Amino acid sequence: MTITAGKKKEKLDRLAELAGRDDERGVSLWKEAFRRLRRNPAAIIGAVILAIFVLVALIGPFLVPYSPTDTIGIREGLIRPGTIPGADGDHWLGYDHQGRDEFSRLIVGARQTLLVGVVSTLIGLAVGAVIGGVAGAAAGLGGRWGRAIDNALMRVIDMMLALPSLLLAVSIAALLGASLTTVMIAVGVVSVPVFARLLRGSMISQANSDYVLAATSLGVKKPKIALSHVVPNSLAPVIVQATLTLATAIIEAAALSFLGLGNPDTAVPEWGVMLADAQQYLGIRPGLAIYPAVAIIITALGFTLLGEAMREALDPKLRK
């Protein structure tokens, strides 16, 4: 276990523990977090960025002036060796190396980028929730055998946390072959240990709550207590982490596409693929790399601002 992995594990456990607490006035920490978010400028900026991104991804492809696969520049004889025209009145961001409208491809690529980020996060959330839920229920309510199951599952999760996330994603993508599905699976697997550790820690914190003791004293079966009461009250840190994971998922997916492990069909616009295609034309049209790179940075920034603001509102130690 590396020092970095150990710090990451402690950070996740701390967030999970705090999510289950109530404040001194009897108001849940989660409700108090929403009150603080409404007054946090970073959260508002992040939410605005994400709203614009989602809106562009959903309706942008229906409003673009040109088809993202139409080689207009080649047809009109504008693309020649060593020359790629820049922006003009009809093509706001110019053409790419195949004469396609760069602005249209950037807008349509937002949908693919959002799809990769959301699906990969959902994969990590689903698998991580199953592992973390089993481990948390076993540790909090399962007795001696439950603790043994928890220890076995957490050692596997700790080993995954010890590996650099991008290296693990590249290894998985290389094994499965280059495709958009491969990128989503690889990035999703990387986020599994984070969600598992968070949910497990939150469930252990909730296992000692009064409502669990009351349900146990009334004879309610432990599986029902875990599924009906403990899990729903343990999801706050998982939701916060999902927002942060979307940011890293978009960046890691772009990195895999840049390395040639993404969708092999370059006709389908995706910001990471566009960035990879532009690298050999940096001397001619650096804007071809700048436009998708800026889009990735701004989108990841939006998710990060909102996620960090949510984490700050949830953790009393980080409140200002």
From TrEMBL:
Recorded superkingdom: Bacteria
Pfam family, one: BPD_transp_1
Transmembrane intervals: 42-64, 114-141, 238-261, 289-310
Keyword Electron transport: no
Swiss-Prot/TrEMBL keywords: Cell membrane, Membrane, Transmembrane, Transmembrane helix, Transport
Subcellular localization, as worded in the UniProt entry: Cell membrane
Descriptive protein name: ABC transporter permease
